[in-house]
Design brief:
The protein is α/β, with parallel strands linked by helices and 382 residues long. Helices cover 27% and strands 21% of the residues. The protein folds into 2 domains: 2-135, Cytidine Deaminase, domain 2; 138-379, Dihydrofolate Reductase, subunit A. It is built from 11 helices and 14 strands. Helix 3 (85-91) packs parallel to helix 4. The model has no long low-confidence stretch (mean pLDDT 94). The protein binds NADP nicotinamide-adenine-dinucleotide phosphate.
């Protein structure tokens, strides 16, 4: 079993190499072992390219016969962009398959393993399952729930302040923390902000790391996540900096404004109308309060195969996403200085007035990034 752990750990490390490139596919690694020796290994590099099992089988050649395959995700049994990997393992004569976890897609879960068993291959499942799931939180959540995995990144002073009362906010955290955010961006399928931040900061929301910095082959194009602006009334100016940068921008609005929409589309943006629930049904709201319906937007982002959303917004949108139950993880960078209680907070949470209504969080990781702290937290399931 100990040797099995080591081989699966190797497969997980290989899968990790696809962190920046496999989107919208999962990160998957595979190791083929015969007589205690690795005879082939591979990882999935990009959608449309060969799956990890195929790369490992090609490397092993004839030595795959009688081997054990350690894979971080159940081999596929259906024709997607490439033919089924279960069939490839069967025809290569593999004797045993150890999968860390089954495919999260409820329509295929278990079928790949079933096919292998039917062909007389010994199948085991669950080795280092938690680590394998951590590689693909977005892919797994999207397959299971029809929603993407959502991280909110915020930079704050030690007293939890994200901008001065005037809106001034550059820079709260160190260069090291901002470089760390670049890696969060590089792994995200989309980076989402609100109209408030867009109008205040005119941000770029792009990945500025080179291929080498991400461990990719030198000169390889770095994937730019989709940029999403949540802008109910299409107040984004067509001259916004991010519209002039490589990569696509989607602007989600609540009501169509044909003239503004045409100007933004001419500037390269896609516009999506995400109708808010009918305000006439809610007597507490007047029409001017109509915002983008975040649940509808997130469902649409998942439908477009976006796995991991990184929210980099101000307290209004970050709070709204949290209250809508759409946030899975908070990444909080805390800088060792105080901005005072007149400065703005982290999350706007209207209606929260009693201790019993606090938002409970669990700390998953605490780390020092240069002079700052990075906290990874998850909302406690209620
Ligand atoms: P924000 O949260 O980025 O955007 C808020 C706006 O989003 C709302 O005013 C609303 O305007 C729009 N929106 C659309 N649909 C919504 C929905 N369903 N729920 C809530 N809002 C929705 O802006 P902000 O709160 O004004 O904060 C801006 C400040 O935050 C800036 O000073 C910026 O520098 C700072 N900031 C700090 C950090 C940090 O990590 N420290 C990160 C980002 C920004 P419409 O409905 O009219 O579109």
């Amino acid at each position: 079993m100990a040797a099995g752990h080591a081989f699966m750990a190797r497969a997980l490390r290989l899968a990790e190499r696809g962190r920046w490139t496999t989107d919208p596919n999962p990160r998957v690694g595979c190791v083929l072992v015969r007589d205690g020796e690795i005879v082939g290994e591979g990882w999935h590099q990009r959608a449309g390219g060969p799956h990890a099992e195929r790369v490992a089988l090609a490397q092993a050649g004839e030595r795959a016969r009688g081997a054990s395959a350690f894979v971080t995700l159940e081999p596929c049994s259906h024709h997607g962009r490439t033919p089924p990997c279960a069939d490839a393992l069967i025809s290569a004569g593999v004797a045993r398959v150890v999968a860390a976890m089954i495919d999260p897609n409820p329509r295929v879960a278990g079928r790949g393993l079933e096919r292998l068993r039917e062909a007389g291959i010994a199948v085991e499942v669950g080795l280092l399952a938690e680590q394998a799931a951590a590689l693909n939180p977005g892919f797994i959540k999207r397959q299971r729930t029809g929603l993407p995995f959502c991280r909110v990144k915020l930079a704050a002073s030690l007293d939890g302040r994200t901008a001065m009362a005037s809106g001034e906010s550059r820079w709260i955290t160190s260069e090291a923390a901002r470089a760390d955010v670049q890696r969060l961006r590089a792994g995200a399928s989309a980076i989402l902000t609100g109209s408030g931040t867009l109008l205040a900061d005119d941000p770029s929301l792009n990945v500025r790391l080179t291929a080498e910095a991400l461990g990719l082959p030198p000169g390889e194009a770095v994937r730019q996540p989709l940029r999403v602006i949540v802008d109910s009334r299409l107040r984004t100016p067509p001259t916004a900096r991010l519209l002039g940068l490589p990569g696509a921008t989607l602007i989600a609005c609540a009501t169509d404004e044909p003239a503004r929409r045409a100007a933004l589309e001419a500037a390269g943006a896609q516009v999506l109308v995400c109708p808010a629930p009918d305000p006439s049904q809610d007597p507490t709201k007047d029409r001017t309060e109509t915002h983008v319906d975040l649940s509808t937007l997130f469902g649409e982002l998942a439908r477009r195969e976006l796995n991991e959303i990184l929210i980099e917004a101000g307290p209004t949108l970050a709070g709204a996403a949290l209250q809508a139950g759409l946030v899975d993880e908070l990444i909080l960078y805390l800088a060792p200085h105080l901005m005072g209680d007149a400065a703005r907070g982290l999350f706007r949470l209207p209606g929260l007035t009693q201790m019993a209504e606090r938002v409970p969080l669990e700390i998953h990781d605490v780390r020092r990034i240069g002079p700052d702290l990075r906290l990874t937290l998850r909302p406690t399931p209620r």
